[in-house]
């Protein structure tokens, strides 16, 4: 009799499996090479009809793994079998190639054999093995499947009648097969179909008693077949093969199981290869196959050898395969996965607790789309921030592109494009997955009176700005005048937003975060941009203002009476990118701190020593209040500034007046000189200072100096 030839499994990997492996590798597995369990499935064998010849063409005996392979309970269609696999991903291609393939498959085979001998369990009979290496930069995935199968010695043989259609005699197609089908004709295929449709079984038993067909599980073999004549016993399995003379791979291990567990009853086995996923239409035969297999003498209790590594479909050699997804992937999806790769790699070894989702979900509002705004936006994108909004009323000029990396020469033509919209559009070209928008808004400022005809427009601009503040979590103040920062400072404090300030001098810069309105965890409230000055923001900066000699004077000076070198931001070219990056890094450190907006700054150190980053609760280290940078000395100086109760930007007096009066209060600040001084009490401070000055005999002081 001819030896039974089994149709081997062929792996079918859906693209979703590789996409999910990419996520798993980056977010879960990281550097681990531990084996994990994955899920696969196979269905009953299918064939298609060749239109030219009219013959059926068998489809592959496929075992499929897809995106749901890593889930615990994937959903399967009827007549499909769930199977588990051992999955092992290697960190380097060298490790993948050097892996001991024999040891890997032998380990799986041993577990399958132990389950047969010790528990009589069939759940592992179709277990597979998958090893991979994922090149996430090129989106190439090297992989090799093994479908472990025992080698029976002697081999199983099929009866001289071979494999026949299960209903052949009933349909009267092949009278010569009566000797095989005579006892089988009583089994009602429709009853089997109905039973399998309700409860899909990879392996099952069938018997006929009194004209009634029953279906049971393999594990119930002795009880199920008790008192049943051998000619009325049938062993069935869901067959993934569609080849007429070749049953599918699962039958190999099923026969080994039967011989090992029930050796006295299984030297000859009547096998039903179930291949019908639906009832045949009228006049069509059932596709399932039936045959009788037998085996010679041997020791069924000894663990047999095994095979199973998949052959390459092109060369037919035992070798690994590669799936190259880059050519078939949507470029936008490629970009979406690639932009965060470097960030997620930080969590493999350096910062496992880094919360990237919190950073990515932070909505950032950038007031100013100039040099600082462009660099802040690029650095935010580097940290994975997905929502960036620009506000600016200027247009791109010819001096901008060389200093502001989001603009090009063409943006300057025909009067220049609006900066905010142009910057947002450029971000989407860099990364299509970014949610970037631009708004052309003129921010009203104290000391810049609004004419009656423009009040309604100013009111709309303020309302628009308030809405943007409500829709964002973080606000960056990146403008080039001191008074333009006042309204955003008030709004940020009133609405409890994270506000970050960046300002430039020639070779110095200031980066700071505004303190929260409520008390911080240290009990001391941190100051805002205006807390260090006793002068209210205005268009004309008094000569004796501390800001006249401030390191940020060039950036924050007022707008009136300025020469050309004062109207332009005259700074060392590398300074803006340093300040912008520092501002973003300060934000991310703040977001990683459990206290967030209320995070305390590091306390001052003796003799100017640097604070220890390990003392901070942020995984990224310290969260300073202010950083003043000196490029000429290549030095940064952390500073803590307390809130000022007479501050014109964040004091409770100002915030309550805004909350109670709204735009009317703001309009007074814009139009009425001295309003903010009077509101906060700075005018009384001036008077007290003048009184002290008048009481001093300056002539006497001068004589003593001489």
TrEMBL record:
Subcellular location: Cytoplasm; Preautophagosomal structure
SUPFAM superfamilies hit by this protein: Activating enzymes of the ubiquitin-like proteins (SSF69572)
Segments forming domain THIF-type NAD/FAD binding fold: 346-594
Domain Ubiquitin-like modifier-activating enzyme Atg7 N-terminal: 4-329
Region Disordered: start-end pairs: 595-615
One annotated GO molecular function: Atg12 activating enzyme activity
GO biological process: autophagosome assembly; autophagy of mitochondrion; cellular response to nitrogen starvation; piecemeal microautophagy of the nucleus; protein modification by small protein conjugation; protein transport
One Pfam short name: ThiF
Coiled coil: none
Classification via CDD domains: Apg7
Keywords: Autophagy, Cytoplasm, Protein transport, Transport, Ubl conjugation pathway
Cellular component per GO, a single term: phagophore assembly site
InterPro entries xrefs: Atg7 (IPR006285), Atg7_N (IPR032197), Atg7_N_1 (IPR042522), Atg7_N_2 (IPR042523), ThiF/MoeB/HesA (IPR045886), ThiF_NAD_FAD-bd (IPR000594), Ubiquitin-activating_enz (IPR035985)
Residue positions of the active site: 568 (glycyl thioester intermediate)
Summary of the function given for this chain in its UniProt record: E1-like activating enzyme involved in the 2 ubiquitin-like systems required for cytoplasm to vacuole transport (Cvt) and autophagy. Activates ATG12 for its conjugation with ATG5 and ATG8 for its conjugation with phosphatidylethanolamine. Both systems are needed for the ATG8 association to Cvt vesicles and autophagosomes membranes. Autophagy is essential for maintenance of amino acid levels and protein synthesis under nitrogen starvation.
Oligomer and partners: Homodimer.
Similarity comment: Belongs to the ATG7 family.
Protein name per the record: Ubiquitin-like modifier-activating enzyme ATG7
Organism: Suillus fuscotomentosus
């Amino acid at each position: 009799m001819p030896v039974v030839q089994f149709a081997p499994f062929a792996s079918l990997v859906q693209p979703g499996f590789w996409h999910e492996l990419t996520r798993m590798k980056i977010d879960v597995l990281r550097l681990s090479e531990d084996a994990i369990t994955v899920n696969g499935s196979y269905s009953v064998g299918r064939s298609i009809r060749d239109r030219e010849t009219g013959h059926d063409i068998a489809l592959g005996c496929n075992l499929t793994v897809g995106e749901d392979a890593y889930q615990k309970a994937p959903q399967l269609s009827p007549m499909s079998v769930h199977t588990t696999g051992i999955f092992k991903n290697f960190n380097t291609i060298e490790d993948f190639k050097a892996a001991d393939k024999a040891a890997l498959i032998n380990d799986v085979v041993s577990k399958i054999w132990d389950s047969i001998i010790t528990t009589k369990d069939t759940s592992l009979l179709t277990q597979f093995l998958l090893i991979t290496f994922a090149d996430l930069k090129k989106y190439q995935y090297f992989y090799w499947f093994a479908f472990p199968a025992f080698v029976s010695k002697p081999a199983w043989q099929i009866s001289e009648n071979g494999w026949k259609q299960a209903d052949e005699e009933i349909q009267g197609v092949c009278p010569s097969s009566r000797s095989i089908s005579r006892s089988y004709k009583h089994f009602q295929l429709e009853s089997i179909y109905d039973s399998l449709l309700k409860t899909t079984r990879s392996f099952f038993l069938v018997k006929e008693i009194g004209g009634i067909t029953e279906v049971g599980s393999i594990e119930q073999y002795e009880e199920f077949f008790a008192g049943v004549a051998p000619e009325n016993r049938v062993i069935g399995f869901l067959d993934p093969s569609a080849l007429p003379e070749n049953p599918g791979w699962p039958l190999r291990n099923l026969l080994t199981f039967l011989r090992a567990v029930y050796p006295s009853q299984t030297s000859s086995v009547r096998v039903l290869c179930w291949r019908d996923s639906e009832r045949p239409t009228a006049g069509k035969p059932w596709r399932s196959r039936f045959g009788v297999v037998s085996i010679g003498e041997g020791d069924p209790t000894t663990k047999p050898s095994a095979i199973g590594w998949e052959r390459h479909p092109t060369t037919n050699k035992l070798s690994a395969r590669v799936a190259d997804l880059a050519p078939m992937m949507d470029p936008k999806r490629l970009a979406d996965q690639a932009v965060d790769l470097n960030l997620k790699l930080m969590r493999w070894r350096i910062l496992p607790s880094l919360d990237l989702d919190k950073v990515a979900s932070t909505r950032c509002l950038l007031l100013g789309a100039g040099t600082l705004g462009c660099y802040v936006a690029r650095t935010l994108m580097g940290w994975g921030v997905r929502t960036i909004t620009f506000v600016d009323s200027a247009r791109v000029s010819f001096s901008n592109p060389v200093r502001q990396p989001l603009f090009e020469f063409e943006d300057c033509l025909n009067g220049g494009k609006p900066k905010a919209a142009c910057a947002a559009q450029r971000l989407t070209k860099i990364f299509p997955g970014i949610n970037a928008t631009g708004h052309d808004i003129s921010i009203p400022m104290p000391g810049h009176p609004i004419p009656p005809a423009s009040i309604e427009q100013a009111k709309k601009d303020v309302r628009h700005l308030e809405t943007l503040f409500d829709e964002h979590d973080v606000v960056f103040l990146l403008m080039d005048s001191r008074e333009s920062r006042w309204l955003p400072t008030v709004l940020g404090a009133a609405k409890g937003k994270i506000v970050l300030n960046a300002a430039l001098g020639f070779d110095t810069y200031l980066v700071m975060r505004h303190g929260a309105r409520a008390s911080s965890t240290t009990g001391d409230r941190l100051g805002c941009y205006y807390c260090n000055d006793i002068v209210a923001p205005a268009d004309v900066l008094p000569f004796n203002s501390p800001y006249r000699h401030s390191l940020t004077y060039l950036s924050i000076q007022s707008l009136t009476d300025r020469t050309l070198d004062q109207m332009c931001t005259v700074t060392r070219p590398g300074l803006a990118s340093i300040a912008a990056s520092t501002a973003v890094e300060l934000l991310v450190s703040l977001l990683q701190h459990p206290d967030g907006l209320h995070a305390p700054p590091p306390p001052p150190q003796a003799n100017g020593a640097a604070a220890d980053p390990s003392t901070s609760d942020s995984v990224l280290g310290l969260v300073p209040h202010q950083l003043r940078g000196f490029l000429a000395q290549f030095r940064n100086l952390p500073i803590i500034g307390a809130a000022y109760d007479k501050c014109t930007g964040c004091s409770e007096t100002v915030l309550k007046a805004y909350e109670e009066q709204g735009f009317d209060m703001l309009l007074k600040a814009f139009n009425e000189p001295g309003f903010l001084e009077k509101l906060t009490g700075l005018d009384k401070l001036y008077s007290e200072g003048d009184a002290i000055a008048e009481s001093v005999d300056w002539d006497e002081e001068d004589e003593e100096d001489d």
